[in-house]
Structures are given as structure tokens and as C-alpha cells.
Amino acid sequence: MNKGYIHIYTGNGKGKTTAAFGLSLRAVCAGKKVYIGQFVKGMKYSEVKAEEYLPNLEIHQFGRSCFIDREPTDEDIKLAQDGFEKCKKIMSNGEYDLVVLDEINIALFFKLLKVEEVIKAINEKASNVELVLTGRYAPQELVDIADLVTEMKEIKHYYQKGVTARKGIES
Amino acid sequence: MNKGYIHIYTGNGKGKTTAAFGLSLRAVCAGKKVYIGQFVKGMKYSEVKAEEYLPNLEIHQFGRSCFIDREPTDEDIKLAQDGFEKCKKIMSNGEYDLVVLDEINIALFFKLLKVEEVIKAINEKASNVELVLTGRYAPQELVDIADLVTEMKEIKHYYQKGVTARKGIES
Predict the structure, then answer these.
(1) Rounded distance, CA B127 to CA B141, Å?
(2) What are residue A154's phi and psi, to 5 degrees?
(3) Cβ B11 vs Cβ B143: under 8 Å
(4) Residues A115-165 pLDDT 10s
(5) Which residues are within 8 A (CB) of B125 and not within 5 positions of it... i.e. 6 or more apart?
(6) What digits encode the pLDDT tens for the residues B53-83?
(7) pTM of the model
């Protein structure tokens, strides 16, 4: 059986979730089954529509919105934890070839989840499952156990010029 | 009319082409038309099948294989230049909302194309066209005129452990 590797996309630059979706698209094209769990996000971004186009792709969201201007509440914690319970099952039953835990690093950074429980779930995952973890601030404990870590580093960004997120590009 | 921005994904890390495909997926989901021109590549990677799943996505390849262990030949130069002529038309006629020039930085690095002609084509593009340039070794002249530049930086890679490219993940 193929060993499933652990990828991390982190850093302050653009392209982390985007790369995870690109990887999902490539995997579906190769006949694989893909599950994407999105932490912290509850917004119906354009990307969520990918389910409509791609067979064997399933997307679930476990959040309400990001915490740019507010503190996470008990409800955010519950949403993340319930979502993670679902992801744990999916990681361990091996039904999906590729599992993306989108923005899980952010969920960890805001203490919605504990890094120990994520490591435990990784250790208990079905061996064939390829796992992708995204989000800024990847904790060192996850970097240590990952097979592949890419930092998306912002060199230049038009948000600096006051451009806001645009439908079909960033959202 | 919306201004189309110029994105660059560069660096030695994983996820450059992958992010461009993720961005293309998101754009198609938002009802946009996407054109992907792949320089240097001629291999029918899984990702090329994305055309079958996504309406409004077109992919053309302008190469044979990468130059890891050989020098580019006149044929490689001709393929790249003919491909770039096609891309120039597509950039200027504004028919596609998002145009990806995949691995164009590599084509420039290997002198299959000249940076001056790429800059000229960018200056002459239809103003609504969002442009994505990918590949290692982005030349400084392109970084200077881009709106958004992300460096994918390799922190850890399993190729270091001797794992080769796997179908549906890297290829």
C-alpha cells in the first residue's frame, strides 16, 4: 500500500488554501477521493462550489468567520472540535485518499484545538491517507512530523495598496 | 471595469503550479473563463485532465519535458515562442478573465523567451485580464511590475528522503 505523506502549507503569503485546492483538483483528476475540512471558515467562498464540478470531492466547513477583529467564542470552539471529530474518523477509516485540514494551523493558533489531539489523530490515520494541513503559524510540533513543508512567503502584496479580496480570485 | 492584477508564484518550494490550478478552480467556480498555457511541459500530468471537469478552462502545453538533464534545443525554443505568440493574443483580446503562464519563469531562465517580450505583452494585455506567472527564478524585472509575489520556500521535502513524484499528488 502507498504511504500517505503529510504536507504543510504555511507562511504569511498567498496560496496556501489555493495550493490545497489545486492539489485536490489534481488528485480528483487522477481518480482519487478527496475530503476537505475547512476550519474557522463558514463563508461560502467560490471554492466551495468546486464540489459541484468535481466528482469524489467533499467539502465541509467547521466555522463561522475568521477572527481578525474578534475573540473566538465557545461556539467557535465547539464548531472546530465537532469538525475535528469528523475529520478524525475520515483520517482513520481510509475512505478518502487525500484529506485536507484547511486552516487547521489557525484553529490551533487560536486554541480551538490542541496540538496533542491533532498529532494523535495523525498517528492513528490510515496509512494510505495523504494529509494536507494549511494555515499560518504551523506549530513546530507539526512541522517536525511532516514530510513536506512549504512556507508561502509574501514578497509583495496588493493588499498593501488597499485592494480588498475579490470574488473568484481570493474568495 | 475591474483591473486585472499580476501574480507571481516563485521559489524552490512545492505548490507554485498547484496554487495556479487552485486559483483557476476558484475562478471557474465564480463563473470566470480561464486559460492556462504551460511552458516547458509536454507531459500529460493528471492536472491536464482538469479541462474535462471544469467548464471555461482551457489548457495548452508548449513544451516537451523539463531540462533537468539536458540542454534546451532549437525545437524547445520554437515550441516556447509559438506558445508565447498564442498567449500574447489571449492576453490582449480579453476573452479569458484569468490567464496562467505556467513555468514561464523557467522558460525565461533557459532563454527560450526574452523578458523584454514578456514585459511588452504584459503592458499590452487587456486591462481586465488577471495574469499568473509561475516557476522558479522569477526575474527581478517581472517581480518589479507584479502586484502580488509569493515565494514558495521549501522548508522540508520528502524528495530529500528519496521519494519520487507520485501520480495525482505531484504529477
Answers:
(1) 20
(2) -75, 120
(3) no
(4) 999 999 999 999 999 999 999 999 999 999 999 999 999 998 766 666 677
(5) B4, B91, B92, B99, B131
(6) 999 999 999 988 666 567 888 989 999 999 9
(7) 0.89
Interface list for A 80-119 with B (CB within 8 A) = 97-98
Amino acid letter, residue A20: A
Question: What tens digit of pLDDT does each residue of B15-60 get?
Answer: 999 999 999 999 999 999 999 999 998 777 788 899 999 999 999 9
Q: CB-based contacts of A73: which residues, under 8 Å, 6+ apart?
A: none
The CATH class that applies to domain A6-161 reads alpha beta
Question: What residues in B contact A139, CB-CB < 8 Å?
Answer: none
Note whether B46 contacts A29, CB cutoff 8 Å.
Answer: yes
Q: Which residues contact B44 (CB under 8 A, 6 or more apart)?
A: none
Phi, psi values for residue B35, rounded to 5°: -120, 130
Task: Please give the grid coordinates belonging to residue A43.
Answer: 463563508
**Closest approach of chain B CAs to the CA of A95, in angstroms?**
16
Q: Does B46 touch chain A (CB under 8 A)?
A: yes
